Amino acid sequence: MTTLTLAKALNAGLRRALAADDKVVLMGEDIGSLGGVFRVTDGLKAEFGAHRVVDTPLSESGIVGTAVGLAYRGFRPVIEIQFDGFVYPAFDQIVAQVAKLHYRSRGNVRMPITIRLPFGGGIGAAEHHSESPEAYFAHTAGLRVVACSNPADAYVMVQQAIASDDPVLFLEPKRRYHVKGDVDETGNLADAKPMGLATFVAPGDDVTLVTYGALVQTARDAAIAAAEDGISIEVIDLRSLAPVDYESVAASVRRTGRLVVAHEAGEQGGVGAEIVAAVTERCFEYLEAAPVRITGHDIPYPPAKLERHHLPDLDRILDGVDRALGRPNSLSGVEA
Question: For the chain, is the Cβ count within 10 Å smaller at the N or the C terminus?
């Protein structure tokens, strides 16, 4: 095992993918000589050359459009959208071309494109630099959407995304880039858990808490805090938002009888709403209480000084758990 930050784990995964297949090409703004804003691609241009790690103009639509052309020619482009809020100029290319060409060509054309997207808040950034646009893309048929939450998953999942013949939107929680963890750089990718399956982060019997990305660590902390009050929370890291591993989530809810879903994006039309609906359909007779969503507020992302009030934190998640249990929130001092 090697101890790496999440950013370094992504770097190692990209390096291994570049070395394994000369059809893998990285593209993005400032990813070459600079190594990316978050230094995820640091050193890769020097190692593999400017023809494999390509600095592009500031044109997200152009970057994605070029990736479509490369995929047509048999390449496996990996493109970086510098910040989540910059993805919208490329939205048409992603949902109208990348996600649909395999279907429209009756299976004759594949789009093995990986779109790396730093997402979420918590870094004190300026406007358009802290967004959670995952629901737009999870709604898009033909597009896989996955989110890593720790260095070990980041290392493996980015390679799985690149190896996939389906286009993948690869979400990276930017406020967790510097979190460290153990990574097995010698493992066989074929033996790793598929990126479409959820992971049970903490076992529990009273409540199922489902989340992804940056909030996985917050959910883990909530489970530890709740245990001190005699509450047992089962934490599930979804990892894949499209498709969702409903079998794992439903199996947990059938045991606990209660569901809480947490994410940074707004509540209206969010991933959490779809999970609640799907689990209710599958587990209605097992539910002891109505499912609860803990989300960001339905507002444009606030200025940096206010983002701590917007992002779900430990207290808000514990409050949601207590509401699912039908009890006063003694853990955060707020009445449910």
Answer: N
Q: Residue 53: beta bridge partners?
A: 26
Q: Catalytic amino acids?
A: 129
Closest to 39 in 3D by CA, of 75, 82, 102, 95: 82
Output the pTM of the full model.
0.94
Calculate the alpha carbon distances from 263 to 198, 209, 244, 276 in Å: 15, 11, 15, 13
> Exposed (0-12), middle (13-18) or buried (19+): which is 159, by Cβ within 10 Å?
buried
Q: pLDDT tens-digit profile of 231-242? A: 999 999 999 999
Q: Which of 131, 63, 135, 74 has the alpha carbon at shortest distance from 97?
A: 63
Contact between 133 and 300 under an 8 Å Cβ cutoff? The reply is: no
On the question of pLDDT at 249 being above 80, the answer is yes
Query: In the structure encoding, which two tokens stand for residue 94, read together?
Result: 């992603």
Closest CA relative to residue 231, chosen from 309, 134, 323, 304: 323
Kindly state the average pLDDT of the residues 63-69: 97
Q: Cis peptide before 151, with omega less than 30 degrees from 0?
A: no
Q: How far apart are CA 229 and CA 156, in angstroms?
A: 36
> In this structure, which amino acid lies at residue 166?
D
Q: In angstroms, what CA-CA distances link 22 with 71, 89, 92, 321?
A: 13, 29, 29, 48
Give the pLDDT confidence of 165-175 residue by residue, as tens digits: 999 999 999 99
